[in-house]
Amino acid sequence: MSLRDTFRRDQVFAPLRPGTRPVRPGQLDTGGKHILYMEDITVSFDGFKALNDLTLYIKPGELRCIIGPNGAGKSTLMDVITGKTRPDTGSCFFGQTMDLTRMTETEIATAGIGRKFQKPTVFPEHTALENLELAMAGPKGTWQALLQPVTGQQYDWMAQTLETVGLLAQKDQLAGALSHGQKQWLEIAMVLMQKPRLLLVDEPIAGMTRQEVERTAELLQSLAGEHSVMVVEHDMEFIRSIANTVTVLHQGSVLAEGKMQDVQNDPKVIEVYLGETG
Ligand SMILES: Nc1ncnc2c1ncn2[C@@H]1O[C@H](COP(=O)(O)OP(=O)(O)OP(=O)(O)O)[C@@H](O)[C@H]1O
Ligand SMILES: [Mg+2]
């Protein structure tokens, strides 16, 4: 083993490395310090590096905000984690043993990584509850799911999740009739149906009212702890209201990382990002 291997994956002790522990395939092993390990990731599109030697770690239960100018690589980062985009170089592990670069998008979703896209993709002709039923059927689920009777346990889980996102009173409303903010929360609830350990949320508050933004901040904070949550957002007031650790991306690399108050006073960050959007 090279010296580099010994010290990477964030100083993981050799006996904890893949293949050295009796872990069932497909089982998330969070025996290490982190739940997500991205090291030296590069993604090129026609020679342009959307991600450039990016290294990032996420701890179990943490709420991590990712900020950075347009084109910094934030969405590409999420694409790599979810298997939509394959990195040219670098490694991306979920827990100690799951190599995300070798898994399909469906396998990654099933393994416990959920993603909420910016545009809500709820099924408007179905009720909030039916949307969760469809989501519960999983990435391979079909409309047949609605014909199967749900068990009491499944119903409880759906109702509990609707309550978490503040939509229990709207359970029988058609999703298409919900407000924009409510649709976003319903979609978060749909992602939660798969019980993800890591939840990726890309620009959750675009188009929301101030009140909806506040509710979303509370929701994401309440989800952290039980889940690791990675949030990409441009709205600095929102980021300040939820941020614990912030990672600033610039030209596909990590420009700065740390507590919000330190990052926002970092001259490099002010120059490339906060100067414009502050
Ligand atoms: N499929 C693709 N083909 C070619 N270039 C791409 C592709 N996807 C992303 N890019 C480029 O990679 C860079 C990073 O894009 P990305 O979408 O990750 O940025 P972002 O930080 O999410 O930006 P925004 O804040 O605007 O959402 C951009 O210059 C973008 O044009
Ligand atoms: Mg983006």
UniProtKB/TrEMBL annotation:
GO MF term set: ATP binding
Keyword Transport among record annotations: yes
Keyword Transport annotated: yes
Keywords from the named record: ATP-binding, Nucleotide-binding, Transport
Domain ABC transporter: 36-276
PROSITE patterns tied to this protein: ABC_TRANSPORTER_2 (PS50893)
PANTHER family on file: CONSERVED COMPONENT OF ABC TRANSPORTER FOR NATURAL AMINO ACIDS-RELATED, HIGH-AFFINITY BRANCHED-CHAIN AMINO ACID TRANSPORT ATP-BINDING PROTEIN
Name of the molecule in the record: Branched-chain amino acid ABC transporter ATP-binding protein
